[in-house]
Design a protein that fits this description.
- By secondary structure, the chain is an alpha+beta fold.
- It is 58% helix and 12% strand.
- β2 and β3 form a beta hairpin.
- It starts with a helix and ends with a helix.
- The model has no long low-confidence stretch (mean pLDDT 93).
């Protein structure tokens, strides 16, 4: 449910080998550059067919800054475009390099940020079920978090109706 959004995020790659995947609509010659979905970029990188442009990966210090702001606001703060995909890309890069320290820091910071954001979403849904229709609130959430919001809202509503 959530991985599909993350996996579809476009990532710039440089092809090191000819790649022809007609079912996916991907056909590139070695030496060309293109944007492909994250899931495909990671798989092609594992096969040695591409080099991923790492500039889109989020850095642990950026997550730390976002977490700091998040902890001081009552509503979730707006995260950068493609945030969770950029986290996944960074984790992949750190893991590939064997940079255990950066990977550990990234995972810990993201975990703390996610816990704070999910807590806020859950409390708001439980106390203000109509928040699901508040566009200014929805605009603060990533696509993955909007999917989570819908799921939490359905569960809370179902629970409330079952006990009344």
């Amino acid at each position: 449910m959530y991985g599909g959004v993350v996996g579809s995020y476009p990532v710039r790659v440089a092809f090191k080998k000819d790649v022809d995947l007609p079912l996916l609509g991907v056909s590139h010659k070695a030496g060309t550059e293109a944007e492909v979905p994250l899931y495909l970029a990671l798989k092609l990188d594992e096969m040695g067919a591409v080099e991923i442009d790492e500039s889109g990966a989020i850095q642990p210090r950026d997550v730390t800054s976002l977490k700091y702001v998040e902890q001081r606001e009552s509503y979730p703060v707006k995260l950068p475009e493609g945030f969770y995909a950029r986290v996944k890309l960074a984790a992949y890069i750190f893991n590939k390099r064997g940079d255990v320290k950066s990977l550990r820091t990234l995972v810990q910071e993201v975990r703390e940020l996610v816990i704070e954001r999910v807590r806020k979403i859950a409390v708001l849904v439980a106390t203000r079920p109509d928040i699901i229709n508040d566009q200014s609130f929805l605009d603060r959430l990533t696509a993955e978090e909007r999917a989570l919001l819908t799921s939490i809202h359905a569960s809370v509503t179902s629970f409330a109706l079952s006990i009344i």
